[in-house]
Every structure is written in structure tokens, then in C-alpha cells.
Amino acid sequence: xxxxxxxxxxxxxxxxxxxxxxxxxxxxxxxxxxxxxxxxxxxxxxxxxxxxxxxxxxxxxxxxxxxxxxxxxxxxxxxxxxxxxxxxxxxxxxxxxxxxxxxxxxxxxxxxxxxxxxxxxxxxxxxx
Length: 128
Hints:
By secondary structure, this protein is an alpha+beta fold. The protein has four helices and five strands, in the order ββββααβαα.
């Protein structure tokens, strides 16, 4: 099997992954994923597509993560892994889609407007 290259995005985070046959090793920015994401909830987010398709331990994943926070990076990585698994076997798509992993989350931070302290917050109005 040749190396499969996919990309996943979430907020400001970008995940580029290279997936190939192996023993289930996940490396992020030259670190083990459990070292990069010490929180178990984020490790679960990353493992989700692999567990749903029952391919844990079959593929090695090398990922480059950039931008955003740790939660956004984990979800970007999850999308990239999902896309790679669908490239391998299109029959995985209905399972992953039913759990909402195929769709990219489009929510982004709204920009700050001039004359306001934040994106939507206004300065206190004074009548007199």
C-alpha cells in the first residue's frame, strides 16, 4: 500500500497526515500522540475513527499539526484520519458519517469590529 496523504482543518488548526501500513503508531510533530496530547479526552477524539472502523493497530500515522489550540488540533487530526480511512475503503464512509466525523466543522472566530470592544459586545450606552 502506498502512503496516503490527507488534510484536516478546524478553526485555525491544520493537520497534514501520512498514513501507511504499520503497527498502529501515531506520531505528531515527531512525538508520540499520548505525549503530545496528555488529556485522555483528546486521545479519545483522535482514536475515534480508528475504533469505529476497527482498524486500530493496522496503520501508522505521521502527522504535522500547525496553528490553533490543542482541541482544534485534535479535531483537525480526527478529520484528516477520517478522510484517509475513506480513501482506503469507501465502505467506511456510512459508519463515520453516522457519527458526524466526515463533515468539517465550519465555525470560525468572528472578527472584532472597529468601535466595539469585541466582535459583538458594545461599549455601555449612556443617554446623558
